[in-house]
Amino acid sequence: MTLTKPPLWKTYRDAPLVLKMAAGFLLGIAAALIFRDQATLVKPLGTLLIHLLSLIAIPVIFLTVVLGFVRKVGCANFSYVAAA
């Protein structure tokens, strides 16, 4: 009987999110320590990521509040509240 290793992508896909985030964090620190000045070349990518995250945060918070309100009040009563 031979044991075969699963493909790398399957291993990555099945890994917990926390493990993926920790690996990315550690790889980012290692890249910054190894490449120092050259690591500033990827700074625009980090800035873009932060801007995209802040761009999506507002709608997510708004929809979470609205959907929570609708679930608490109920759809029938929501039209009454919205008309007032």
Description of the structure:
With 84 residues, this protein is an all-alpha fold. It is built from four helices and no strands. 79% of the residues lie in helices and 0% in strands.
Record keyword descriptors for this entry.
84 residues, 79% helix
Mean pLDDT: 85
According to DSSP, the number of beta strands is 0
Which term fits the overall shape? flat
What is the chain-wise order of helices and strands?
HHHH
Radius of gyration: 22 Å
Number of helices: 4
Structural class: mainly alpha
Our measurement of the CA-to-CA distance between the termini, rounded to an integer number of angstroms, reads 72 Å
Helix content: over 70%
The oligomeric status of these chains comes to single chain
Largest sheet: none
Strand percentage: under 5%
Stretches with pLDDT under 50, minimum 5 residues: none
Task: Please give a quick description of this structure.
This protein has 84 residues and is mostly helical. The chain has helices at residues 8-14, 17-35, 43-73, 75-83.
Which helices and strands appear, and what pairs or packs with what?
Blueprint: H1 8-14, H2 17-35, H3 43-73, H4 75-83
Helix pairs in contact: 3-4
